[in-house]
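Sanity check

After download, print the first record. It should look like this:
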Amino acid sequence: MLEEQTKVLSYWLYKATPAQKYIEYRIPKKNGGWRHITAPQDGLKRIQGKLARLLAEIYNDLEQRRIDHAFDGLRVSDCVLSHGFKDKYSIVTNASVHVGRRFVFNTDLEDFFPSISFGRVRAFFIADKNFRLTPPVATMVAQLVCYQNKLPQGAPTSPIISNYIAHILDIALNKMARAGNCSYSRYADDLTFSTNEAIFPSAIARLIGGTTDRWVAGDGLLSRVCASGFRVNHDKTRMQLPKSRQEATGLTVNQSLNVAVAYYKLARSMCDHLFTGGTCFEKKDGKWERFPAHKLQGRMDFIYSVRRSRLRITLDSVSKKQHPIAYRERETKFCEQQKSFATLYKNLLNYQSFHGMDKPIIVGEGITDGLYISAAIKTVGVHFPKLFDTAGTGEVLVSFYKHSDKRKFYQIGEGASQLKPFITEYTKIMEPFKTKPKQPVILVVDNDDEGRDVLKVAGNRWKKDVKTVAPFYHLVSNLYIVPIPLKAGITNAAIEDLFNPIWLAAQDINGRKFTKSNDYDSATHFGKAELVGQIVRPNRTTITWTDFLPLLQAIQGAILDFEVNVAPSL
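Expected structure tokens:
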């Protein structure tokens, strides 16, 4: 089932030394101290990854059947107890269980992964009714996933196996919670109980005698955790009352789900410093250290996901055809409710994409444009030193705008017409940023009626002569536009027309032929996504890229023009 050769499995099971299997290192914890990581080497990691995906599929299927045979698995269920390491579940879904409660009690399981031994893993796969592996096979599985007689923190198999083994604990704790009219959930090693009852069940947590604010885990909780082969971490046990800030998996749950106020204010302040000075900082151990912009983007993405979850609008069951409409409706509603944050978030996306990026960025009419150009650069880029690292690293020296759902809503949508508002409003988009842009933004448009209409709009808005044929046009600041070069005798050209027409006409996928049209019969034709995914990228070294060379030359010319003529004067 893992589709691995016997000799490969034998090597990792019996021949490889511990040093050949794993590397050990440590990373700083958020609140001080160090987290020890034991990561598998690439070959073993690949095998463990396959096993982890297989076990996850089985786990999700079993969970779906436990919840409801009719449940489609595409939505988040309120009946799920474990929220860690699973698709569609997260710290957000975990914390959502405990919003608006009188009592919120948290505790941790001590040494979660290390407490799951080789023997426990082996015994589970032998005894569990859904597996019932033979002892030799169970031994082999345990050998593949354990290191030094325990689950290693850093292996792709450890999270899913821990969910299997902790399931019996979840059942026991949920039964106890329900008996006390409490809600229970687990995220990895983090256990949370909550209730609106006037008195919190003493079996779960109790006040230390003679105190009014010191809580410890109750005997019922301790006994059930111990019986399941785990230990409570008493140092991370706390009760949170309504008058204090109540948290579950790091999120505030008092009245609504949110990040801590201080966390958001710090992120907002860092964005302001980034926009005005080009850098941002974070205080660590009493010292200010430079904070990478991409990590700030990660923080803001996290805040965005938490705040958007309040809408309780899921698109998982929406049809592919209706998805763009439903997505836009949801984001519009989010922006109406979160105007200040949505503006800040949009500004950061724009800063990262069009102002503070480390590489020139190419923006096509759609996602496939960038994929074609990237494949061309990787194949013939040695002739274009501004596009390709000719020193031998093989690095592509430009980036490509990704037309994700989020970016299509907050930044630029797909299609030539979506470039028009971006071009006309460009200086307004860049207005929040007070530093000089680092790299050029290069729009690539088809040389057809729609593309030429975009070019006309650009020329009128920025008073540029776009009637005179040129390989590229500088519009304003770091913004450029490049029309697809026309071949001799041709008056219209999309980027696909740069491929050899005889070669393109000969391409076949299961009897279907290629079409540039976005509206086609998939029984007889295939479109741009399949062309780039199944033909261009896998076979780029065998494709003739001759007619792409003028396009690459134009892009390189725009980059040189920015470096020599534009950047010094900004």
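If your output differs, re-run the checksum step. Summary of this record's structure: The mean pLDDT is 92.
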